[in-house]
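for the record, two folds in this file. i put them one after another cuz i was lazy. first one right below, seq on top, structure tokens after. the second one comes after a little note so u can tell where it starts
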Amino acid sequence: MATFQEQKAPSNSTDALFRAWVKSVIDGLIAVGLVQTADTGQINTTTVLAPTAGNQNRGYAIFQLNDTLQSTSPYFFKFEFGSGTGGANTLWMGVTVGHSTNGSGTLSISTGSVTVHTPYGTGGMNAPSTSPFDMNYSGSSGRFVMTLFRGSSGPLIIGFERSHDNSGADTDEYGTLFISSGSNGGSNAIQYTLLKSGSATPVTPGIDTIISMNTSLGSSVFNNKRGLSPLFPFVGKFGNPMIGMVGLKSGDWVTDAETFTATLYGSSRTFMVISLATALTSPRPTKFAMRWD
């Protein structure tokens, strides 16, 4: 397991600021175990120019998992960077998961079409800032989770991990993308689960949230302990829970960046509390914590 942290400003207002946050995403993913592919045409963070108007896509970076299952159940990721329709300084990202790449930036899945997810919506992050905020990355060769601009008015969580067996070991059945963008005009909290390459219907039916506890039921505190909920991918059934993130009740977990340990699949894991700009609404967990080990 690996972690990586630095600070960058959520701003496209200058070439330097735009390059800095894009480079952080690339550096962070590499630092926690992913591999950037050799696809041609990928964004050059030394020379790329910041958007000069709204709705400009300035380039992409392609990554793949680096575990032993990648040879039989491959997953590739395309991250696109630019501005939303709200103007040049509204940060925009596109996130795509696929089974393969054509070597020049186009991902595909074995059956059907890929989905481009826009965590901040088409409008982009609606509260950019030139102040730096934490960029947190955690992962291994078969999973990753990152929180961009933690502490700002538009923090963004993106994570992916493989399916797990009853012991928590990775399996090649499916992989799940998780996105939460808090308030900033984005998707709030979604899952997108892609079955392994070769499946007749690889994309599971969409739902707008990871299945978790109903946090409208009041405090999770019991016996002087605060509750948390694993996140369960939905694949026509509830899959074994994810290990990269857990759901929390906002009122019980009030300190941003607080770390704690919890036992999942019989092993102790360290998590970091991520405070969203606006707490999500039921039936979602109203706050999340990302793995931080």
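(here's the note) second protein begins now
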Amino acid sequence: MNKLQPQNLFKNPVQPRNVALTVVGKNISAMSRHMPLNTDPFIYGIAVNNNSQTLKDLKNTNYFSFNFMSWEDISDTDFCGRVSGADTLKLEKTDLALEDYKEKTDYITSSMGVLILKKKELVDFGDHHLVVGEVI
């Protein structure tokens, strides 16, 4: 048996992982570390790198969307995971389109499913924050 070492889980974890896109303002970021945390109320959590533009944006907003993408959007999803939102307006470099949700946040129109979240808590774990949101 090949035992997974804790220090290698983020570098070479069990694959594949479901990648979804987080939209905060006009910043779009790919996330693969996410999960439901509670059912009633419906609470969802995502792990966000401490050095990312996405975390900076999440600290300054109350709402964000979490978009589950189809295989057809793989190129745009990959791009959003490789390029920093601090340097590039990703929306201008992809075929993704945003639509407003009740003036709270935007979501990706081509997504297969969307969670609109109200930020509840940010928990610092060292190199990542757990961003906890309640689905509205």
